[in-house]
Design brief:
With 284 residues, the protein is α/β, with parallel strands linked by helices. It contains eleven helices and seven strands.
């Protein structure tokens, strides 16, 4: 840990936050719905390299409520400076936390259209990682979360907000299956297979050009309150969480809403196709 004198720290802040951003090693841009296992996969990715991480860079709730517009994409360097300013300006930061030159970046978007990107004209390689969880469990988790709060990001009744969530999942599913090609330089991740299968995780590391490690696989992120069902009580032991049968725990109003969601024929068909596609790939 480096200790900087106040004047030196101020110069470092000024130089990094107002000057040009040196080329970053690479960017992995995560796309996923809330409760899709995004943070589990991110926690697993981060020990693979010396990653900088910007979480959920465009929160969807104020956009859905009309409090804020969807931000226009910024030039990449300006966007990185903006994120650094938001992340570090009000705290003393050790030198290594701000030394981003030639470091890789993971950043995430939650519940956004796949056509949206918060930055443009990056000066390094961007890998778009699409994380999808099976529809039964992602909507079970979202419904459970929604019943404990009043948030358009977690709708707890049928209506336009729930339909938006269903339509987003279907859009992500079509991209995962190759029916659309909205994302360039794309790596698709089945959360279910990632959770179950070390060979699958090893192949993902290879696909990303990273040396394999499972160091972060058992962490439960506190982001978003942890699991909708278990909070963070399984941190360090996440492989024992029952994340593949959450829908079986629903009852009463939760189950009624779940059944309404699954009246969507296309949702069920896409979910079945994803399960079959992942099974076929693993059999090869």
């Amino acid at each position: 840990m480096y200790n900087l004198a106040p004047a030196a720290a101020n110069r470092l802040h000024f130089g990094l936050l107002n000057g040009s951003i040196h080329t970053m090693k690479r960017v992995i841009l995560i796309h996923g719905l809330k409760r899709s296992g995004n943070h589990a996969v991110i926690n697993w990715l981060r020990p693979h390299d010396h990653f900088v991480f910007f979480n959920n860079v465009v929160p969807i709730k104020p956009i859905l409520t009309g409090e804020k517009p969807l931000p226009e994409p910024l030039p990449f360097n300006a966007w990185v400076r903006q994120r650094l300013r938001a992340k570090y300006l009000h705290a003393f930061v050790p030198l290594q936390a701000l030394a981003i030159k030639n470091r890789p970046l993971i950043t995430s978007l939650e519940d956004h259209e796949l056509t949206y990107c918060p930055f443009q004209n990056p000066d390094c390689t961007v890998t778009n990682m699409l994380i999808i969880r099976d529809a039964k469990n992602v909507f079970a988790s979202r419904i459970r979360k929604g019943m404990s709060r009043n948030s358009p990001a977690y709708p707890n009744k049928p209506g336009p907000m729930m339909q938006r969530s269903v339509d987003l999942w279907k859009s992500h599913a079509r991209e995962f299956l190759g029916q659309t090609q909205l994302l360039e330089n794309k790596v698709c991740v089945s959360f279910n297979e990632w959770f179950l299968n070390k060979v699958y995780r090893r192949k993902l590391s290879e696909q990303l050009g990273l040396p394999f490690t499972d160091e972060g696989v058992s962490q439960v992120s506190p982001k978003g309150g942890g699991s909708s069902f278990n909070s963070t009580q399984f941190d360090g032991n996440s492989q024992n969480m029952q994340v593949l049968n959450r829908y079986e725990s629903l009852e009463g109003p939760e189950k009624e809403l779940f059944d309404v969601v699954f009246m969507d024929n296309e949702l069920r068909e896409l979910n079945d196709r994803i399960e079959a596609t992942v099974t076929q790939k693993n059999d090869k």
